[in-house]
Amino acid sequence: MSRKKSSSRLLIFVAVLAIAGGVAAFVAAFPKHTTTPTAAGTGSGTEPTKATGDDLPASPSAPATPKDMSDLLVGPHDVNLKINGWYGWALMDTRTGKIYGSSDMHKTQKTASMIKAWIAADVLRTQAEQGKTPSDYLLGRVTVMVQHSDNNAAVELFKLVSNGASTRRMISLCDMKDSKSDDNWSNTLVSPYDIVKLGKCIADGRAAGPKWTQWLLTTMRGVNGGLTYGDFGIRKAFPDDVAKTVAIKNGWIDRQATQTFTVNCLAIGDHWTMGVMTNSPLSFSHDDTYGANVCKQVAAALLNKP
């Protein structure tokens, strides 16, 4: 082999080494991401795992949710009312699903008109699931049932969603623990605990579905007409500018069989839901005034102080 050819091959070998070294340096400077993402919540691999729903942790850049709801309008406080009769209450932080309440928050009582919030949601969701747009007539019946607590509209709409089958769906869909369905909507049994479950179910879209949830909440905020139509209770504990943002549905009736006047209150606020149930002897209370005030007093006791 001549010295000239040997020198040429040496130069080529050196050049190849230089190019390879440059490529290696480039790859080192800009490495390709090859880590495989892991399934949510498995905790394996090097990628961050993701939690869902109520277990979702706060962002590292955001403050943690206070356990006592101290950053909201309401929170878990002692409620000590002296009344003629019974009352129970529950309060949920809808960000975490944590429920606070009285020692008897699992005690049940017939809902009366409070259940109309669910009937409205069930009608709207089932219409959407069937690919239908509710007619103006149907929306009008839902509105008058919610805002003026119209019983005839409630009977009509409850039948449309198969009576007791509707409230059985409510118990399942909203993960209720104490409730019992009935073919008479007014006789549906719920507890304060399950009232706040219903409130969250409406607020997060499960009850009415994604298309109609905001419409229903707006309609519930529009309950008006004073005691006659159910504009009382929990939201009356707030200043007017706040009260108008709280969605409500109340129920009230004199139960001759038990000789009691019952009042039930549901309220949905910003990141919270509240339920109050109360009853008093008919010999003492003949209308919803007394029970309405009990709902208001419970809410007032749960207000967070500035």
Tell me the span between the first and last alpha carbons: 95 Å
| Count of DSSP H/I helices | 9
Task: Give Rg in angstroms.
Answer: 30 Å
Q: Biggest sheet: strands, sense, closure?
A: 5 strands, antiparallel
Fraction of residues in helix: 25-40%
Task: Please summarize what this structure is.
This protein has 306 residues and is of the alpha+beta class.
Structure commentary:
The chain is an alpha+beta fold. The protein has one domain (86-302): Beta-lactamase, CATH 3.40.710.10. Helix content is 37%, strand content 14%. The protein has nine helices and seven strands; from the N terminus they run H-E-E-E-H-H-H-H-E-H-H-H-E-E-E-H. A five-stranded antiparallel β-sheet has the order 2-1-7-6-5, sandwiched between helices. A two-stranded antiparallel ribbon has the order 3-4. Strand 5 and strand 6 form a beta hairpin. It is globular, with a radius of gyration of 30 Å. 37% of the residues are buried.
Produce the secondary structure layout.
Layout: H1 3-29, E1 86-93, E2 98-101, E3 109-110, H2 116-129, H3 136-147, H4 151-160, H5 164-173, E4 189-190, H6 192-203, H7 213-221, H8 240-243, E5 247-255, E6 260-268, E7 272-281, H9 289-302
Antiparallel strand pairs: 1-2, 1-7, 3-4, 5-6, 6-7
Question: Key terms for this structure?
Answer:
single chain, about 35% helix, alpha+beta, about 300 residues, disordered N terminus, two-stranded antiparallel sheet, five-stranded antiparallel β-sheet, about 15% strand, Beta-lactamase
